[in-house]
């Protein structure tokens, strides 16, 4: 919790993260004079953010009254991927009260995608999940101007450049909205309720259709001047490598991502060097990253090697980042995290071997604890933060 935040934001976050508390407990936690705290609580009750929650357990003497976030608070959380969307409505404690997940092609453009998001949120309203939304948080798979609430030149999102996502959602739902990069919201979710809980300096690496990195420094997401910090998928790792979606050659993402792995697996299946992949290609007509993961579990040597090659490339990029930022943890998430411990072991091996010993002496490299929920969890945190900021 950041000391520079206004009292009302710190108070609302405390109730969000810790649950109902007595006025005395809140005063102790916030180190706030009781008259000022009571005045702020009265104001937040009047605004509908806080309500009374019954009596605290007796500790001898008069039982104190608990306060909590209003049970009517609702935030929408949206995680858009290259090929999927996850939409949740959560309460003030960020617990889901409605959830939807479905395939979606981000290349179909902002109007169609956001229309579908709105349809799912309308369905949640009809089903009784909320009467009104207090804020909307959304993550998209490309660079974002966090200040302006728009995607900026996203390589895999044709038609989205400078599209007014925040403005459209604000207008549609009559509440504040916030837009961020998908890997940033995953990092925020993992810090709030996952394996990186309360870790102030860590890297969250999303390996999926693309590759990106959420950067936490001193307890804050570092987005960079223009919102594109952490776009590690477009770091060149092979000057003679394949063409990337960004127009350059040999980017990490072009060599190891969901699409790149499926392409390499198809080549291996057709060449007959992988019985597991050849069998799946014959049965389904295509092979996917999931087929590689299953083949590796079965002991297929080619599948294991494909995963190790990818892990080596990711590890090489992360080794440079570790020497540069000296994080206290690296979290691996995204769809290709399902490749599991073969991938993780290779990344660890390269990072530990190629980074400075001082930077890796106590550096856990771990899989995401929240898995596919990391994005919506982070979008919910962002939505609540923007709503709490409005309570002034």
From TrEMBL:
A Pfam match: ROK
Keywords, comma-separated and alphabetical: Kinase, Transferase
Signal sequence, start to end: none
Superkingdom field: Bacteria
SUPFAM superfamilies in the cross-refs: Actin-like ATPase domain (SSF53067), Winged helix' DNA-binding domain (SSF46785)
Single annotated GO MF: kinase activity
InterPro entries in the cross-refs: ATPase_NBD, ROK, ROK_cs, WH-like_DNA-bd_sf, WH_DNA-bd_sf
Family recorded in the similarity comment: Belongs to the ROK (NagC/XylR) family.
Name used for this protein in its record: ROK family protein (Putative glucokinase)
């Amino acid at each position: 919790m950041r000391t520079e935040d206004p009292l009302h934001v710190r108070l609302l976050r405390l109730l969000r993260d810790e649950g109902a508390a007595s006025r005395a407990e809140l005063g102790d936690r916030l180190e706030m004079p009781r008259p000022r705290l009571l005045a702020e609580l009265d104001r937040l009750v009047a605004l509908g953010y806080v309500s009374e929650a019954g009596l605290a357990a007796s500790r001898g003497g008069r039982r104190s009254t608990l306060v909590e976030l209003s049970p009517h608070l609702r935030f929408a959380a949206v995680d858009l991927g290259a090929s999927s969307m996850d939409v949740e409505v959560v309460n003030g404690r960020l617990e889901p009260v409605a959830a939807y997940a479905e395939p979606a092609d981000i290349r179909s453009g902002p109007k169609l995608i956001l229309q579908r998001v709105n349809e799912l949120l309308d369905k949640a309203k009809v089903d009784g999940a909320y009467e009104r939304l207090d804020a909307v948080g959304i993550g998209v798979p490309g660079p974002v101007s966090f200040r302006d609430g728009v995607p900026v030149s996203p390589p895999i999102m044709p038609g989205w450049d400078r599209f007014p996502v925040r403005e459209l959602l604000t207008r549609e739902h009559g509440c504040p909205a916030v837009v961020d990069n998908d890997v940033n919201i995953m990092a925020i979710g993992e810090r709030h309720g996952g394996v990186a809980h309360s870790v102030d300096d860590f890297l969250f690496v999303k390996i999926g259709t693309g590759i990106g990195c959420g950067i936490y420094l001193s307890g804050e997401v570092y987005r960079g001047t223009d919102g594109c910090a952490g776009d590690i998928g477009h770091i060149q790792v092979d000057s003679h490598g394949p063409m990337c979606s960004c127009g350059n050659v040999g980017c990490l993402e072009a060599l190891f991502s969901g699409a790149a792995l499926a392409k390499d697996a198809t080549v291996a299946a057709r060449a007959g060097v992988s019985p597991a992949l050849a069998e799946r290609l014959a049965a389904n007509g295509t092979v996917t990253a999931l087929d590689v993961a299953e083949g590796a579990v079965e002991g297929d040597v080619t599948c294991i090697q494909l995963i190790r090659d990818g892990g080596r490339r990711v590890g090489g990029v992360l080794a440079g980042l570790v020497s540069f930022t000296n994080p206290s943890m690296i979290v691996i998430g995204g769809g290709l995290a399902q490749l599991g411990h073969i991938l993780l072991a290779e990344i660890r091996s390269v990072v530990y071997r190629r980074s400075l010993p001082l930077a890796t002496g106590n550096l856990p490299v771990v899989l995401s604890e929240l898995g596919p929920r990391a994005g919506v969890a982070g979008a919910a945190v962002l939505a609540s933060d923007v709503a709490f900021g409005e309570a002034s």
